[in-house]
Design brief:
Layout (H helix, E strand, L loop, with lengths): L2 H9 L4 H16 L4 H4 L3 H5 L14 H11 L5 H14 L2 H10 L10 H8 L4 H7 L2 H6 L2 H14 L9 H4 L2 H16 L8 H6 L9 H11 L15
Helix pairs in contact: 1-5, 2-5, 5-7, 6-7, 7-9, 8-9, 11-13, 11-15, 13-15
InterPro entries: EboA_dom
Protein name: Sugar phosphate isomerase
Length: 236
């Protein structure tokens, strides 16, 4: 996603009133960065919350896209930008935190926003987990954390198709962990997600899982939440 692509897509998903509000909000943020903290929580009510693509329930929403444009309008870089988006993430509700994660590829933050990604991966909110493993994580997240995040997606029911960068980050170690997960599910008499078999077919040399593999699965699937979903009184 790029800002231009988001604007084009939003044209068909927002009312004229919502579009005017967003344009004004972006102009205000560009002129005075501090106003973003008051505008960010209002986006869902002003612009809408539906999916950008109704066929993709794990993908971008209208408010994700609109909030991302607000962040892209910030005339900040470096530590100042990281401080601003970090504050929006920490004080926001689930939708606001998700939008910060979605926006990361649009922002000049380098590796500086990785703590936000890691925090989201520790939650049990599937929308946050899916957003955390977007294009920014594809480019910046270390291999082990990325693998554990993918396994958590499978464990929590997030389809692998929701991870745009997975084809480029998949490796034999990830396949080994996935095979161990499938083995554990079958041993417990539980179903295995349909998208595991096609993934494992890409790595035919992966061996039968052993004790170490099963320990890796346990580590990924028993992670506790570091944050909870908080309702935002500002959008009530």
């Amino acid at each position: 996603m790029t800002p231009d692509h988001l604007r084009t897509t939003l044209t068909d998903r927002m009312t004229e009133q919502g579009s005017k509000w967003l344009a004004g909000a972006c102009a205000s943020v560009a002129a005075e960065p501090g106003v973003v903290r008051g505008l960010f929580p209002l986006v869902g009510r002003r612009c809408g919350r539906g999916p950008l693509d109704p066929a993709d329930p794990h993908g971008w929403t209208v408010d994700d896209a609109a909030r991302s444009l607000l962040l892209a309008a910030l005339p900040l870089t470096g530590a100042a930008l990281l401080e601003e988006i970090g504050e929006l993430y920490r004080t926001g509700d689930a939708a606001e935190r998700r939008a910060v994660l979605r926006a990361l590829p649009l922002l000049p933050v380098g590796d500086g926003a990785l703590p936000l990604v890691r925090d989201a991966l520790r939650t049990n909110d599937t929308r946050l987990v899916a957003a955390a493993l977007g294009d920014y994580a594809t480019d910046h997240l270390d291999a082990e954390t990325y693998r554990q995040g993918v396994l958590k997606c499978v464990f929590t029911g997030i389809p692998l198709s929701a991870l745009p960068g997975l084809p480029g980050r998949a490796d034999a170690e990830m396949a080994r962990m996935m095979a161990a997960f499938a083995h554990e599910r079958r041993a417990a008499g539980r179903t295995v997600p349909d998208d595991i078999a096609p993934f494992l077919a890409l790595f035919p040399d992966v061996t039968v899982p052993g004790p170490r593999d099963l320990q890796d699965v346990s580590t990924a699937t028993t992670a506790t939440s570091s944050t909870t979903d908080r309702p935002s009184p500002r959008e009530a």
